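Final report, Chapter 2: Outcomes

The project's central promise was a pipeline that accepts a single protein chain and returns its three-dimensional structure in a standardized token representation, suitable for archiving and comparison. That pipeline is now operational. To close this chapter, we reproduce one record exactly as it appears in the project archive, with the input sequence first and the structure output second.
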Amino acid sequence: MSRALLITLVAFLLPVSVSAAHSAVVGPATFKAAQSLIAASSSPGNSYAVGASVVLTAPVAGDFSALGGSVITAAPVAGDNLILAGSIYSRASVEGDFRCIGGNIDISKPVAGDLVAIGLSVHDSGDTKGSVFIIAMNTKLDAGASGPVTIYGNNVSLAGDFAGDVTVVAGGRVTLAPGTTIHGNLSYEAPDLATIPDSATIAGGVTYTNASYLPDIGTSRLLAFMSIGFFIIARIVGAIILAGLLAGLFPKFAETLVENVSRNRLRDILLTSLLGFAIFVATPIVIVLLMLTFVGIGLALLVLILYALLALLAVMYAGILAGGIAMRTFMKRRQVLWHDGVAGMAILALVSLVPFVGLPVVLLLALFAAGTLLQTFFRFAFPYDEGHE
């Protein structure tokens, strides 16, 4: 594919010097830009057009360059065509080279020079006198070509008379229409043999290279393991970053969480963890019961969102809790900083990899964090006045 890109680059750059020489002998250039542009007056020199919709209805004596959402050329161009658009329709002859990049490209009239087309779909039913170079998902040539043809794509369909060699690299099927004539060599690379009818003539012979783009079993397993590893690493890195943000943005709550573990008795810690466990078990049951009624569906969705948010925060604060306890134990520092959350989540990720022990430890910390979050929310929602009995 790097060779294809190099050829494309050369094909796009080489005609520039020719166009410059050509523009020296024709008249002055014209520039037009509009939302919907119809070029109805002939241009004595090069013509440049920009618009969401561009339609060329008058001849151009020089080169025609257009940029737009949709470009239609319904008048002949004496020079080169250079078009970048979402959809391109060439309905008139081009005396020079035709270079285009677009989504859907349809060429129905002859091109006297070379054709370079890059798009999702390319259909050429005109007679190209020069060489043809196409990169597209689906390519269909109905009128042959006088020069060599090179096509990179998925499905390729050929018809007409080809005077030179034809080279195809396809990821799908290669099909020749009945009566197709190739005076040179047909060289193609594809997963399956091309469909070549008996009425087709290939004077230079056929060179086929089998290319299966599906990985074998060993490669598939390797790709699967690499994908899983990348997913795990991305998830760990994302959790580390989020834990660091939470610890940095809400340090007081992180310190309260660590303080509850340090000061409270084991009984209080277990009760708080039991509260978190009860919420995690009971909430799905409540959601299911709410969804059984039409009125409760909206409330069930809201509870589901809050449940997912609580689970996420519980895991994040479990990492912050691990980092805070580690810093308080080894560094003798009571304040919780953002990098404590980063270090704690990294520690939690490593602990979770320990067989039989890691996941229960992570689950216990997450349940305690969830219980503390619920207690904090309850105190915020229902403040208790100590002076009132």
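Archive annotation: Residues 1-25 have pLDDT under 50 and may be disordered.
This record, like all others produced under the grant, will remain available to the consortium after the project formally closes.
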